[in-house]
Amino acid sequence: MKTIFLVALTLIVQVALGWPESPGWLSAILLPMVFVVGPPLLLEERRWPHFALALGLAWDLVLEPVVGPGAIAWSAGAVAVSAVVPLVADRSPRAWLAFGALGAAIMIVVRNLALVPLGLAADLTWGYLLLSVLLTSLWCGLVGWVIALDLPARWRSHRARTLR
Amino acid sequence: MTDRRILVLRTVLLWILLEFLAAAQVHTPGGEPVLLSWARGAVSPVLWAGEAIGSLVRDLVSGISDSSRLVVTNRELQLELETAKTLHRIMTEDMAAQFELNSLAVMVPNLTSTAVPARTIFRDLTRGRMIVLVAVDRRISADTPAVANGGVIGRVIRSEGRRSWIELITHPVAAVAIQTPDGRVQGLAVGCDTRELEIQFIPRQAQLLRGSELVTSGADGIYPPGLPVGRVTAVRESANAFLEVRAEPAVTLATTRVVLLLDGWMSGVHSGNTAR
């Protein structure tokens, strides 16, 4: 339930990032990528591609003109990340950053490929691809850093010290 | 198959379904769903192939039908060609017979009006027999002389309808009274072989040489005088009072096509004598 709430919140923020008054580069950040990168890094469950599929359907419903390509793209990113994560022992924020970049690149490319047969593909530029990959990886790295900080544990120890 | 591969396979299948789902939502500029255009694009090669195969089968059937018609036509043409060849052979034969008949007419200058031309329809040189077919239904008298291009060939021994049986001069019992053209030597030509005549009763002192021509003398009362009979091929002395003489017939019996039956020549002679 918490995950669904977080996903919904992320999508709402994603829509907000694309607000016409906001800077154009903000919409290049793929906020839900943390739900693709996080589970393989934190858990052993291997069903995350299906979760990413549901995430993509939600993405399509909210942000895309047709339902389908987004689901394909997000699940493709999840498959790629979940295939590479077991090969790497690192679970630090750097891993979040790297896998976020990988997932973002694959998601963007596959989404365009899925739109080509439908005649809806927009021109994908290297600039937009690099910008989106960079910003998304930074976003994932930030989330990984925050998780690595383990703020609840720090808060509990701080409370314990002050109560003493 | 590992769980990961199964997972990837399922995911790929889901991707395909999702792509179809997206294609069902998007429309072409013509207003047709993209999915429908995909389906048409996927089916059109099959339809094209079916149409091509149908066309091929139709052409094949048409080709076989045309070929069979050509075979039938070819057979009919071959038949017509064979018929034409046969007609040509018959006409050639008739023409040769006509030439032979013309030669015969020249050979027998005093041809009587009762002489009958006839075509050879059967010949057996071993037995000395020949069957001829006359052009008109007329009974030919027995002992009527038969001449061909070159000379005498025999006499009629039987006549029935348009057919007449001829005993050739080479028949063992046939005999023709002969003489040399100048009439100095006279004898009797008797059949002895398929291709030879034996000339009997030629005196020892007779001047008869190899190559001498022999003609009918008319002494037998059957053949008119002066018709060629043969040519001497061998003259030998013998133990008796006569020479042993052999001659070959003047007519090539094996290739004779047309004969002339001198029916009534004797009556013509008699009427001539009576008139005189």
Q: What would the average pLDDT of chain A be, to the nearest integer?
A: 86
Q: Provide the CATH topology of the largest domain in chain B.
A: Thrombin, subunit H
**What characterizes the major β-sheet of chain A?**
none
Task: Calculate the terminal CA-CA distance of chain A, rounded to whole Å.
Answer: 36 Å
Mean pLDDT of chain B: 88
Radius of gyration of chain A (CA) equals 17 Å
Number of helices of chain B: 3
Compute the separation of the termini of chain B in Å.
Answer: 137 Å
> Biggest interface pair, residues each?
A-B, 20 and 17 residues
Tell me about this structure.
Helices cover 72% and strands 0% of the residues of chain A. Chain A has 164 residues and is mainly α. Chain A has one domain (2-163). Residues 272-276 of chain B have low confidence and may be disordered. Chain B is of the alpha+beta class and 276 residues long. Chain B has helices spanning 3-25, 34-107, 265-275, and strands at residues 116-124, 129-134, 145-148, 151-160, 163-168, 175-179, 186-191, 197-200, 213-216, 228-236, 244-249, 258-261. Classes of the chains: A mainly alpha (164), B alpha+beta (276). The interface between A and B is medium-sized, with 20 and 17 residues.
Fill in the keyword field for this structure.
heterodimer; A: 164 residues; mainly alpha; 7 helices; 72% helix; 0% strand; globular; B: 276 residues; alpha+beta; Thrombin, subunit H; 2 domains; 6-stranded antiparallel barrel; 6-stranded antiparallel β-barrel; 12 strands; 39% helix; 26% strand; rod-shaped
Which helices and strands occur, and which strands form pairs?
The complex is a heterodimer of chains A (164) and B (276).
Chain A: H1 2-17, H2 33-42, H3 48-63, H4 69-84, H5 93-115, H6 126-149, H7 151-163
Chain B: H1 3-25, H2 34-107, E1 116-124, E2 129-134, E3 145-148, E4 151-160, E5 163-168, E6 175-179, E7 186-191, E8 197-200, E9 213-216, E10 228-236, E11 244-249, E12 258-261, H3 265-275
Antiparallel strand pairs in B: 1-2, 1-12, 2-5, 3-4, 3-12, 4-5, 6-7, 6-9, 7-8, 8-11, 9-10, 10-11
